[in-house]
Known about the structure:
Blueprint: H1 5-24, E1 30-34, E2 61-65, E3 69-75, E4 79-88, E5 96-97, E6 102-105, E7 108-115, E8 125-134, E9 137-148, E10 166-169, H2 191-197, H3 208-230
The structure holds copper (II) ion.
Amino acid sequence: MTIQGPYLLGSFPSTLLVVAAVLQSATAHFVLQVPTSLGFSDINEVQAPCGGFDTTSRNKVTNWPIGGHPIGVVTTHPNAHWQIRAALLENTQEFVDLIPNIIQDGMGNFCLMSVPGIANWVGKDAVLQLVQTAVDGQLYQCAAIKFVEGATASVPGNCRNGTNIVASIDPEYTGSTTVPTGAAVATTTGAPAATTTGLSSANRTINPSLLGFLASVIYVLDNILDILVLL
Ligand SMILES: [Cu+2]
């Protein structure tokens, strides 16, 4: 197929407008991927305690071993502060820290390999809450969990660290939670991922909004090509 120059130029300004509009609607702050979240809404993510979703929803419950469970997110904010907390389902007014607060630099895939459960809560229904504080203020996502006996759960493939991600414990953390043995945080630097996923992996994130955005762009390009063929 030959594409005639003038038609191509004529189509581009409107294309850019469409792409710009789509980009604006796909500014995902962060998306909780592991464990399965209560749901993600870009617009409502600013709403405490669970980004606009019903705290008591139990559609997909993840068993959380006391030994630890991974937490995986995709974050579009390069400098963020994280609170990793949980509350009992019977008292969702009171979230407590599972680990000390985390400072994350770099963006893309971010995985805490093993965040311990609360031994006193074994057998209890609970809600995991992630609070990210970054340029957009505080953002929230939650997951339905249940604390169970057991050693740390295995880390799924979609819980990984982009090459630019570096995490550390917030030195200003004043809570009582201590760093778990087996250090959830020590394993979060991007170095291991670099060897397997290449340099740009931190930005090659897969999340619903990004997929939606890519689909829209492909759709737009596809339409333009169709129009050009007709012409
Ligand atoms: Cu944001």
